[in-house]
């Protein structure tokens, strides 16, 4: 039951590049798509790493019969995904035009377009990582997890067949976003009685607002300063600062907890000295 979904994931992950290379005569499209995938998936690793940590903890808590604690862990995980996903998505969209030429060199402008289209998978995979890896698998609901992943693989194949002949790598990117949205939607449907999804979605509002302000700062920075490696780094730094300042003003619990932990560590460090 764990093997089948992993095969399905690998199939529709590799299927994109295979279909682009088979359908499109211009093989450079495969390169543009692969490089964009690497950038987005690298950013995604920050979020999905949480699943590796939380899965055994939730499995242990569930086996002990503490369902209330399981839900508490889950809501914290959703909060964590929202905290990182929205700034990562809008951050990639805002800096891709300046970042891609610096990182890859001239001629990779197509990669920048693909990054902008495919970046929403950070949110969808982040959420499905919580509902699937952190919840459905630990509570022994592998069948539902498998169905969601297989549904994503089928949708990905259909979308690729329709969109790649017309749009190339951009079509594959749209297909990937729709496929990941499908996986997440199916898992939300299966867990609709386990979690208050309206409340979960309400958590995202402050992060969306803060990320939009960060996006505006990054775009303004890009318009004012000429694009180069230094300006891209500064753009990222100022964007991150504006995002966390907004969350601090909105009194986000996670940010306040982080600040409190840092304060305690500083106090401990000073007392030892």
Structural description of this entry:
87% of the residues lie in helices and 0% in strands. The protein has 273 residues and is mainly alpha-helical. Helix 2 (28-63) packs antiparallel against helix 3 and helix 2 (28-63) runs parallel beside helix 4. The longest helix has 38 residues, at 67-104. It starts with a helix and ends with a helix. 40% of the residues are buried.
Lay out the secondary structure:
Layout: H1 3-23, H2 28-63, H3 67-104, H4 109-118, H5 121-136, H6 142-167, H7 169-190, H8 197-224, H9 229-249, H10 253-272
Helix pairs in contact: 1-2, 1-6, 1-7, 2-3, 2-4, 2-5, 2-7, 3-4, 3-5, 3-8, 3-9, 4-7, 5-7, 6-7, 8-9
Radius of gyration: 20 Å
Q: Roughly what percent helix?
A: over 70%
Q: What's the shape?
A: flat
Give start-end ranges of low-pLDDT stretches.
none
- The fraction of residues in strands falls at under 5%
Run of helices and strands = HHHHHHHHHH
Helix count equals: 10
Which structural class matches the secondary elements? mainly alpha
Average predicted local confidence, pLDDT: 85
- Count of spatially separate domains: 1
Comma- or semicolon-separated keywords:
273 residues, mainly alpha, 10 helices, flat
Summarize the structure.
By secondary structure, the chain is mainly α.
């Amino acid at each position: 039951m764990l093997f089948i979904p992993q095969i399905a994931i690998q199939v529709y992950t590799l299927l994109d590049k295979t279909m682009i290379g088979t359908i499109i005569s211009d093989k450079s499209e495969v390169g543009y798509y692969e490089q964009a995938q690497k950038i987005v998936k690298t950013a995604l690793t920050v979020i999905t790493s949480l699943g590796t940590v939380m899965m055994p903890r939730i499995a242990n808590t569930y086996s002990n019969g503490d369902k209330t604690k399981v839900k508490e862990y889950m809501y914290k995980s959703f909060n964590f995904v929202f905290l990182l996903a929205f700034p990562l998505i809008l951050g990639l969209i805002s800096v891709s035009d300046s970042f891609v030429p610096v990182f890859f060199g001239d001629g990779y402008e197509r990669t920048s377009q693909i990054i902008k289209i495919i970046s929403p998978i950070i949110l969808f995979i982040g959420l499905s990582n919580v509902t699937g890896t952190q919840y459905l698998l630990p509570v022994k609901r592998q069948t539902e997890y498998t169905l969601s992943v297989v549904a994503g693989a089928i949708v990905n194949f259909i979308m690729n067949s329709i969109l790649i002949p017309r749009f190339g790598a951009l079509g594959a990117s749209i297909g990937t976003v729709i496929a990941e949205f499908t996986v997440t939607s199916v898992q939300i449907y299966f867990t609709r009685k386990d979690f208050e999804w309206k409340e979960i979605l309400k958590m995202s509002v402050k992060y969306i607002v803060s990320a939009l302000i960060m996006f505006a700062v990054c775009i303004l920075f890009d318009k004012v300063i000429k694009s180069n490696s230094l300006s891209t780094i500064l753009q990222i730094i100022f964007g991150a600062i504006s995002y966390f300042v907004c969350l601090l003003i909105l009194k986000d619990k996670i940010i306040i907890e982080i600040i409190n932990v840092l304060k305690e560590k500083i106090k401990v460090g000073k007392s030892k000295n």
